[in-house]
Structure formats: structure tokens, C-alpha cells
Request: fold
Amino acid sequence: MNDFYKDFFISTLVVVGLVGYISGEFIMSSTVFAAASIASQFNRNRRMNGHLSCD
Reply:
């Protein structure tokens, strides 16, 4: 998966989280924002260190 697809996936999670927040689904939006945060950190660490890590 190249960087475009990773960025698209993370952006989609953020947009879905915003829509959920606006519609009042606070638990769902919190979960989606957490997934976007973890996914962005996971991808960043993988590119920087060359291995899978969440440090």
C-alpha cells in the first residue's frame, strides 16, 4: 500500500469521525478518531524505523 492510499484511509477516518461528532454519535466518533491517530502513528513509525513499532 503506497502513501496515497494510507493518507486517503486516514483522511476518510477523520471525515467519518467529524460526521459522527456532528450527528451526536460521540462514542463512535471517539473510536474513529482513535483509529485514525493509531493508524497515522503506526505508519509514521514504520517509515522512520524500517520495522513495525508504535514507540
Summary: The chain has a mean pLDDT of 78.
